[in-house]
Amino acid sequence: MTLTSVIFDYGAAMKNVLTEIANGVKSGEMPLSMANGAVYLADFRDRVSEEVETQIAELTEQLIAGEITYTTQYDVE
Fold first, then answer.
1. Strand (E) or helix (H) holding 40
2. How many folded domains does the chain comprise?
3. How far is CA 24 from each of CA 6, 33, 67, rounded to the nearest angstrom?
4. 32 neighbors 15 (Cβ within 8 angstroms)
5. What is the per-residue pLDDT across 53-66, written as a single tens digit (0 to 9) for each?
6. What is the pLDDT of residues 12-50, one digit of tens each?
7. pTM beyond cutoff 0.85
8. Are 57 and 34 in contact (CB under 8 A)?
């Protein structure tokens, strides 16, 4: 069994916010997503086969492209 973890990179998210502020955009939000580089999986490549690594890369691309959708407890109004 291989375990990994999701990394929430607040530094990347803050860089995005500061770039927006510098460009005059002040949304008041700091989104964390795979698309903006603020969320990613911890390194697992030395513990899985190349086939599994390829599948994870494909799923990651589908998530970023919005082809796979999901909801969280924060989506409930």
1. strand 39-41
2. 1
3. 31, 22, 31
4. no
5. 899 899 999 999 99
6. 888 888 888 999 988 777 788 888 888 988 888 788 889
7. no
8. no
Record the tokens describing residue 32, joined without a space.
């964390």
Tell me how far CA of residue 32 lies from CA of 21, 25, 50, 53, in angstroms: 17, 17, 28, 23
Containing domain of residue 71, as a range? 6-75
d(CA 62, CA 58) in angstroms, rounded, equals: 6
Question: Which phi and psi angles does 71 have, rounded to 5°?
Answer: -125, 160
Nearest to residue 2, comparing CAs of 52, 31, 58, 44?
Answer: 44
- Domain-located, residue 1: no
